[in-house]
Amino acid sequence: MAVEGEGASQPPVTTTAAATTTERVIARLSRFPNMEHICDNYGDLKLEFSSSVLSSLEKYLPPEMLTANREAKAKFMSDILRKYISRSECFIAKWRNYYWQRINSEYKPLYRGWCNLDPELFLLPAFRNAISENTEESFRRIISEPFPGVLVFQMFQPDFFEKLILEVENVRKWAHEKKIPIRRPNKTSKHGVVLDDYFGLDFMSKKLMEDFIFPICKVFFPEECGAMFDSHHGFFIENGEDRDAPLCYHVDDSEITLNVCVRKRFEGGEISFVGTRCQKHKETNIKPEEVFRYFHTQGQAILHRGRHSHGARATTPSCYRANMILFCRNSLFREMETYKKEFPEWCDECAHEKKEKESQSLAAKRKGMIRIVGGGKAQ
């Protein structure tokens, strides 16, 4: 999605066939949403993209498109989305939609409270109080930052973990009986479960992201979260001798990642963080000072940038751990990333380059001053 800059004029939108043959119109979105605009519903139209996606995007349409008919707006937005999502990906999305509809119509959760997550039942009092106060001071009381950009805190009641583990086992049993494949978090996983696919658990992930993770991110990661995260991806993973092997160093498909240790037996399998990188610097080498290792204990939540490269050490034969992961995403941040040239606020390499440029500039100024002073003395 291209975004117009401040003060930039919007190219005229032409819908006639004649105009499209003589001039290729570049579809662009406005940088800021029109919050007063009432969006249309596209559910009855046969489109590549879901109605909810188009309705969410509509507020960012340029002023001249907001008054167009639904078909014209749907085409305009679809043209933009198609630059980022191929037709094969659209086909996969439609298949997943059918898959979700079948699961949600047939799967019966063990615990029906996932849909209306009760904070008093599942969240610790200290965490609830901090969120209620919603200040940096209140968050600092419950959060430690053992390394820049890595936040650690206690969040859930023990009962939450027990219910979640039982629900995941119920999902596996039901899928086996119904002969329905379980969608895995990644290509290498054989035991993980995508929580968003199952009735109730998707609502739980959304509520956690919007009501409890976003307020913290607004203070500690304001650039990445923006006005609000607009999508999420929640899943459950297990690492151990008879489970999945932990992933090596990688970055997440998220702006912010919540990683909660649901269960752990014996020592081992610590998480190593090895530097934050923007798209431009994702292949640059890691510096020793960027490496940080953390022993994730049961019940702890870790919050970090998705671009903070990390990986878990291989577990020992006797070590087992289960984690709930929640990817929080902001599509506008991703779009704006294509327009910015550097990210010194969070990319370690951008910050290093900025310091180098400042040092070189200061050295050049000093050298120039010395020449001026020296020339004056010579006279």
From TrEMBL:
SMART domains recorded: P4Hc
Segments forming domain Prolyl 4-hydroxylase alpha subunit: 148-329
Highest taxon listed in the record's lineage: Eukaryota
Keyword Oxidoreductase: yes
GO MF annotation, one: dioxygenase activity
Organism this protein belongs to: Arabidopsis suecica (Swedish thale-cress)
Keywords: Dioxygenase, Oxidoreductase, Vitamin C
InterPro entries linked: Pro_4_hyd_alph
Stated name of the protein: Prolyl 4-hydroxylase alpha subunit
A Pfam entry, by short name: OGFOD2-like
